[in-house]
Write the structure tokens for this entry.
Amino acid sequence: MKRILLLALLLHSACAMALDLPAAAPVPGGVAVIDLGSHAVAPRAWYAGKRVMVVGDARQWQAVVGLNLDTPLGARELRVQIAAATTTQRFAVRAKEYATQRITIKDQRKVQPLAQDLKRIRRESAEMRAAFTHWREDAPQSLQFSLPADGPFSSPFGLRRFFNDLPRRPHSGLDIAAPAGTPVRAPAAGRVVAVGDYFFNGNTVMLDHGQGLITLYCHLQRIDVKKDQWLEHGETLGSVGSTGRATGPHLHWSVSLNNARIDPALFLTADLASRNENKRGSDDTQGQSEEPSP
Ligand SMILES: [Zn+2]
């Protein structure tokens, strides 16, 4: 009886893991899910020189690879290490068109920063880069996220943007419009890897969910957590605000896998992902603070 229960539990968790995977979308800004076969020990995998997430169990391992918006189309290679053997596995990246958005920012300095701002911007970029490239061996507790804030999506991921008619980096996250003070909650369990008040992003929190899966929350009015703190799923990390470069209160939410910013909607259940997108011009630009263009 005990054995049957154990088997049922094992099967259940295997199914849960399979269901948990983000929506596979091998496009720039998407996720490639690559079968690595059955092996007693988890294979390790690298894409573009970076460790990538591997999930599953001895019957079926899968690499979950983040593809940034600059990913070249066509055949790409994943390096896979199984025990002592290293192999290469190919996968194809196909095209995806993202819409264009034009935004007017009143604070000209937030579009063309002054020389004195650049030093601060570079320091903050380095801090965020360190957090985005942080690797923790533990697998995430879940690959399916709840919404970090309650509200309509005001700006989708991937928009090609112009600020005051100047081309800037594409939108590297999903914006959720909500009144200032709305609680922002961890969409899955994770550790706080960075907390700061950044030039473009305003009050910012970054969470490490394990195996290179990092999430970012910007423009917060209030921050309720400290660096290295562990958050359970649903715990409050701060509240919605409009700090940094933002035209009004909203949450900018980025999801990063192997240091590639990818569409957060891929980690939501289909009904959440297809929720109303209204075209209210909320804005921010966390991409700018990662790689300032001036
Ligand atoms: Zn945004």
Remarks:
- Residues 29 and 35 are 20 Å apart (CA to CA).
